[in-house]
């Protein structure tokens, strides 16, 4: 089992949400909550780092009850495309996908009968109203709006595009986009039914390292917890990458450590209590 042999010196910890910090009821358990609050009290920065929009992360910020402290003031949204300062109430780091890439993905998805959605902090937009198009809005409790002239709407610029559909269609579309957009965009599957499109080189890992630099924290004193492909960049970039035991085998193999318990059995709390705090 990939577990530390000694206590780890950590100054910043980034947590993915779904299937990592959150259990199957999309809640933070009391034991995990207590461990994270203890870490923050020791001066460790706690950063929620998700593919969700900012307002989709805020309920968990409130649950942690540390946003008023220096250690709890930052969140990372849109898989690393935005870092938000909760004290100043503004984004301090942003990236957007090139407009022509958004339009290309939208048109190719539509040819295949697949919806596409883009995001603002509290709203998810699509060109059609369907269960697939609404899925992420429901998961994140965000507003959903249909935009008739969607291609023109995309000219505003957005941090990411998501194409939700049946897993087999998502997998095939990913292969197509990776070939067509090689070097211009990063394409990955965050859930079997979610295909995500980001600007090339933008991800959770680069955003965490950017924030660490702003805070004067050495990269080797950063840690990340994750389970899936959209966590890969931060698990590789941080000083310590920790995979959830319920994570993908690929993710567990690349990480420094693996939790002894899964997201439904306080895997994070166990790891923090035994190897960090």
How would you describe this protein?
With 277 residues, this protein is of the alpha/beta class. Helices cover 37% and strands 22% of the residues. The protein contains eleven helices and 14 strands. Strand 3 and strand 4 form a beta hairpin. Helix 2 packs parallel to helix 11.
Strand content: 15-25%
Task: Write down how many β-strands occur, each being a DSSP E stretch of 2 or more residues.
Answer: 14
Average pLDDT taken over every residue: 95
Structural class: alpha/beta
Instruction: Calculate Rg over CA atoms.
Output: 18 Å
Overall, the morphology is globular
What oligomeric state do these chains adopt? single chain
Q: How would you sum up the major sheet?
A: 8 strands, mixed
**N-to-C SSE string, H for helix and E for strand:** EHHEHEEEHEEHEHEHEEHEHEHEH
Strand order of the largest sheet: 5-4-3-2-1-12-13-14
Q: Brief overview, please?
A:
This protein is of the alpha/beta class and 277 residues long.
How do the strands and helices of this protein lay out in sequence?
Layout: E1 12-15, H1 17-21, H2 30-41, E2 45-49, H3 54-64, E3 74-77, E4 82-85, E5 90-94, H4 99-111, E6 117-119, E7 123-126, H5 131-140, E8 143-146, H6 150-153, E9 161-164, H7 167-180, E10 185-191, E11 194-199, H8 204-215, E12 222-226, H9 232-237, E13 240-243, H10 249-254, E14 257-258, H11 267-275
Parallel strand pairs: 1-2, 1-12, 2-3, 7-8, 12-13, 13-14
Antiparallel strand pairs: 3-4, 4-5, 6-7, 6-9, 9-11, 10-11
Helix pairs in contact: 2-11
Protein traits:
about 280 residues; six-stranded mixed sheet; about 35% helix; globular; alpha/beta; about 20% strand; eight-stranded mixed sheet; 11 helices
